[in-house]
Amino acid sequence: MPGAAVEIDGLRVERGGRTVLPGLSVRIPAGQVVGLLGPSGSGKSTLIRAVVGVQVVAAGSVRVLGESAGSPVLRRRIGYVTQSPSVYDDLTVRANVRYFASILGASRASVDEAIAAVDLDSHADSRVGRLSGGQRSRVSLACALVGDPELLVLDEPTVGLDPVLRRDLWDLFDRLAAQGRSLLVSSHVMDEAARCDRLLLLREGEVLADATLPELLARTGAEDAEGAFLALIDHAEETTR
Ligand SMILES: Nc1ncnc2c1ncn2[C@@H]1O[C@H](COP(=O)(O)OP(=O)(O)OP(=O)(O)O)[C@@H](O)[C@H]1O
Question: Is 43 in the pocket of ligand 1 (CB under 6 A)?
């Protein structure tokens, strides 16, 4: 197994007076696409926030690329895309990506590369406020890619995208991983599990499974990711009853 991009030990997070992550420990390998899956409210976004260093943590440690999560030196090494696109509506696609490039000290050429990577060349000079929801999320992704990050953390990047765009984005994730980058991608679209090198299934803030899809299928006897996850969740509920 390759080195770790993220190492989490005993992570406890409380939000709104509730314990959301009670004591999570996990290791996310480098150079792979790791899918973070789980029911709504299971803590995926909270875990992602802890990895990028924007979540108040009650206990435990989160190490990212060998540094403490949230450390300023990580800012240039991590690309983070939140669930709602964080881009400027009144600027063009190119101006948005250029803005992030200038913050990160990235080259002009990398602006065009990032726009091409998300297949928005033909909209580079359109104002973001005039784009569709799926196009806006791709602008966000281009802004995250432009700094050439070692770790990309993407919270539901394919929501609202049609099947062709979803496939194209997963192809892009594969290419980025093949270049040695690490990706942590949350999703609740189960067929996307098949595109991940490794899966992390959360349930109620705990890791229910941390395995490859073939391992999960072998363990549960299910035919697909959805069947495997349902079997694991049913099993977990039976044992806690
Ligand atoms: N800002 C907040 N304040 C208080 N509690 C929150 C806040 N955001 C999320 N929570 C709670 O934390 C828990 C985990 O939420 P989180 O957003 O991490 O789940 P998720 O798995 O990403 O869900 P989804 O798939 O619906 O986005 C939920 O019970 C939620 O109610």
Answer: yes
Residue 18: its H or E element: strand 18-29
pTM, to two decimals: 0.91
Dihedral angle over CA of 87, 84, 210, 10, nearest 10: 90
**Structure ipTM:** 0.95
Residue from 215, 217, 241 nearest 231 by CA: 217
Residue 154 pairs in a beta bridge with 81, 185
Q: Residue count of the chain, please give it.
A: 241
Q: For 138-197, where are the E strands, in sequence order?
A: 151-155, 182-187
Q: How many angstroms separate the alpha carbon of residue 6 from the centre of ligand 1?
A: 21
Task: Name the pLDDT band for 2 (thresholds 50, 70, 90).
Answer: low
User: Which protein residue's CA is at the shortest distance from atom 6 of ligand 1?
Assistant: 15
- Domains along the chain? 1-77+151-241 (3.40.50.300), 80-148 (no CATH)
